Predict the 3D structure of the following.
Amino acid sequence: MPMQIYAEQRRIADKLALAVNEDGDDPDTVARAIVVAATDSKPKVRYTAGRSARLLSAAHRFLPAGFFDGQVRKTNKLAG
């Protein structure tokens, strides 16, 4: 049974998940990336699939950690 204390954060996470599904990259793009990852003779730790993933990966690499973390917290409506 879900704890009531987390109800608001669950609502926010559900809303964000729906938005990502509606505005996300084409499922075919993601499927192709999965096939590449599954069949790569020298697999990498991570594979990006689509424009959104590439932008997020670049932001994580090039932005200062505090700023990036702050944006993640803001997007997810977390304190701090």
